[in-house]
């Protein structure tokens, strides 16, 4: 069965997920994955759904817009192409955390380094609110570091980049966090 | 997905609260090295330690980097030398200690424990030879640690051994007098010694243990103190039941980290994992003190009235948290109160809040005993033995481990300060009221019988 990926963006409010899933249901689609996030006042949702061969995706896009336009939400719909999917190399999960004063280029500076080492970000939560509270100016990257990356080289490069950006950087194995917080 | 609070609170424990793995201790059995030729025993021992411990430091450093958790000390514990090298005469026992020291140095570990004997019920020739060799062995080596178990709940107290250890401590102090008797800092006298302690000076590999094993000692007094401070600041009306819960949760987290790291090191070395010993073990660094925890509990200083109750609460909560976190908690697991190794405890002793009597009372509810206590250099062997006997009695009757690590500092008197340096710290010399009044009792010798608590079958 073919799959589509749909993203929905706009001001957060009650009823967004209900509206999208209602249209998908009425058009014979089956939701396989859905994830939503709210940043400040804005909603972002991503859906992956399988759909029947008889369904025209342009028509589905139209029906979604019809339902979501009155809520001033943007919708993007693509077919999932099974070809060309990036395959994760054997990796270990780590958590990289930064704390430090906000300035332009922090996310770009860290992620450029991650990309150069082939480190994939599986989850990212970053907040920059200014002020002195480190908890208000943090980036938490959950990443997968390929086994063939030289850990020492990577760590040194990461810490050096942190120094350049004025950030306090930590780099821990994810298992530590799970050991401490999960029963 | 991890939450922000999970990530940030963990980092706080690591960065500001001294969460670390205090020691990874590789146990190595020496029973297959036994020989009636001391030189052959030494050769076999040296080769075995080199073979098994060659990568210990490297692997620990790699795991520490990978997990972002410091492994502060890497150590070795061997089978009790009095058993493994039982045919050696005292001078040969000293040779064994020197060889242990060299082997430890060669693989880069800071301490090797197991220059030990188990004599709770009586002596073998090997036990006598080892104990006679202890003073010279400890003065001639840097890294060798020694322990002698003189009592158990099952056997009672071997008072001949207690007296002998009083004399041995005096000699060990004398032979290291230029360093304030530091030889005694590497010598523990035990009741009910556990066979899997990773912490020095009591670490050795018991006779029921495997050929090699990784035991891990985790600590974290700083983590406990900060957790208490935060919780009490957030809610000043917390009662002691709620405080116990906070210590328990903290001990749980620390133990989980210790077991994770220990298992990774054990896997990498191809050695079985043994136990996590969760002990609040201080170092002479600010923020890494057991004494400070008492202040966080509302006592002006460790040692003032209320201290024993607070220690009982801490020790119990630490054990409960540890026991939930791991099925393989062992060793001493509780709170250590080594006077010289904790700035705050040493200061309390200096101010007179911590007398030897109060310390003894505290050992009935802490995990070990009279630890790193500096006494006047003219304290007699009989008085030392009597202090040890009292401490052993607490362990034997309460079915717990107790120990005495006493240092009669040569040439110094009450009120002076003893300096040991490094992790061993410094301590004021405290008085022993009624010293020199126990010689007749101690000279009676024999074995104090096992109590009825031993009749559990």
Main sheet: strand order of chain A: 2-3-1-4
Beta-strand portion of chain A reads 35-45%
* Rounded average pLDDT of chain B: 94
Remind me, CATH topology of the largest domain in chain A? Alpha-Beta Plaits
Judging by the overall fold, what is the CATH architecture of the largest domain in chain B? Alpha-Beta Barrel
What is the beta-strand fraction of chain B? 15-25%
Shape descriptor of chain A: globular
N-end to C-end Cα span of chain A: 38 Å
Classify the secondary structure makeup of chain B into a structural class.
alpha/beta
Structural features, described:
The complex is a heterodimer of chains A (183) and B (457). Chain A has 183 residues and is of the alpha+beta class. Helix content of chain A is 31%, strand content 38%. Chain A contains five helices and eight strands, in the order βαββαββαββαβα. Chain A has a four-stranded antiparallel beta sheet with strand order 2-3-1-4, covered by helices on one side. Chain A has a four-stranded antiparallel beta sheet with strand order 6-7-5-8. In chain B, the strands form two sheets. In chain B, strands 1, 2, 3, 4, 5, 6, 7, 8, 9, 10, 11 and 14 form a twelve-stranded mixed beta sheet that branches. In chain B, helix 3 packs across helix 9 (240-269), helix 7 (159-175) packs across helix 14 (381-397) and helix 8 (221-234) packs antiparallel against helix 9 (240-269). The longest helix of chain B is centred in the middle third of the chain and has 30 residues, at 240-269. The mean pLDDT of chain B is 94. The A-B interface holds A 92, 95, 97, 123, 125, 135, 138, 140, 142, 151-152, 155, 170-177, 179-181 and B 1-2, 4, 6-8, 10-11, 13-15, 65-69, 253, 256-257, 259-260.
